[in-house]
Each structure stands twice: as C-alpha cells, then as structure tokens.
Amino acid sequence: MLNIKLTQGYEAIVDPVDFENYCHFSWHILKARNLIYAARTSGKQQITLHHAVATNMGLDLPHAKVIGFINGNGLDCRRDNIYLRDKKIRINTHKSYIDRSNYKNYRGVYQNPCGSYRVKFNRTHIGTFSSEIEAAIAYDEFAFKKYGAEAILNFGV
C-alpha cells in the first residue's frame, strides 16, 4: 500500500497498481456524507479517488449502487476495501454519531447514570438492559434486521 498526499496534511491509501495511475494528480480533501474523501477537479467536474479506483477495477456503478468502504475510512482506496452497496442503505460509521460521554466497549451501547445500559441505533432508542453484553446483542440484532450482511456489528454474525 502507498499513500497519496492530499491537502491539509491528509493522505489517501491506494494499492501500488493504482498509485502509478493517480499519484501525478493534485488531490484535495472532500468532506461529504460524514466522511472525508480524496478528490480532484477536472474542468468543472469533481472526481473522487475511490470512483477512479473502482472504474480502474472494472466495477460497473449502476444508478442504484454506491461505493462503500469496508473499514469505514473514505481515504482508504485500496481495492480490497472498496465494494458496491445499495444507495438506500445508510451506515453511520463516522465517530461524531457516537456519544462518547458514557461510551463503553460496544457500538450503540451507553451506560445510564443508574448503572443500566441503553441501546441506540442511528439516534433511535432500542431499549434498556441490565448488562452491557445483553445491550450489545440487542444492537446487533436490530442492525442485522435493518441492514443484513451490510451491518456493522459488535460480535459479527
């Protein structure tokens, strides 16, 4: 893996095969959809690095699909991190969605002042549980029902 320098001190990660194709362009950061992407301007058109890599991979991007990042990092444009997903599926992987004040060990699980654990998914209250593990399992079940295999889970499937 190699890094392409961006503006404001950021770097994008690409595979060696893609580095040679894209390192000579001037890339900047683009903040959109709660992620940061690598982008460049060509005339009046904005071209993102992950779209360029996907095109170079031969991925056909139909209207109902968008490019997703397995690890949730919009600057990680390695081929094994890029996949196509449905446009309707919205996954919040950005850290600003997590309330860090009472954050413990599991995604979507927060401890109440009284000691119980509440579960939230995309700002939707799912329930309150007596143990952190029970709450994490409830989060996983809800996420899997909503997103299926695309869900980011605490314990996996």
Number of helices: 3
Please summarize the sheet with the most strands: 3 strands, antiparallel
Gross morphology is elongated
**N- to C-terminal separation?**
29 Å
Radius of gyration: 18 Å
Oligomer description: single chain
Q: Which blocks of ≥5 consecutive residues have pLDDT under 50? A: 91-103
Order of helices and strands: EEHEEEHEEEEEH
Summarize the amount of helix as a percent range: 10-25%
Give the number of DSSP strands: 10
Number of domains: 2
Percent range for β-strand residues: 25-35%
- Mean pLDDT metric: 83
Strand order of the largest sheet: 3-4-5
- Class by helix and strand content? alpha+beta
Describe this structure in words.
With 157 residues, the chain is α+β, with helices and mostly antiparallel strands. The chain has two domains: 2-86, no CATH class; 95-150, 2-Layer Sandwich (GCC-box Binding Domain), CATH 3.30.730.10. The protein has helices at residues 16-22, 49-57, 132-147, and strands spanning 2-5, 11-14, 28-32, 35-42, 45-48, 65-69, 82-86, 109-111, 117-121, 124-129. Strands 3-4-5 form a three-stranded antiparallel sheet. Strands 8-9-10 form a three-stranded antiparallel sheet, with helices on one face. Strands 1-2 form a two-stranded antiparallel ribbon. Strand 9 and strand 10 (124-129) form a beta hairpin.
How would you summarize what this structure contains?
The chain is of the alpha+beta class and 157 residues long. The chain folds into two domains: 2-86, no CATH class; 95-150, GCC-box Binding Domain (2-Layer Sandwich). It has helices spanning 16-22, 49-57, 132-147, and strands spanning 2-5, 11-14, 28-32, 35-42, 45-48, 65-69, 82-86, 109-111, 117-121, 124-129.
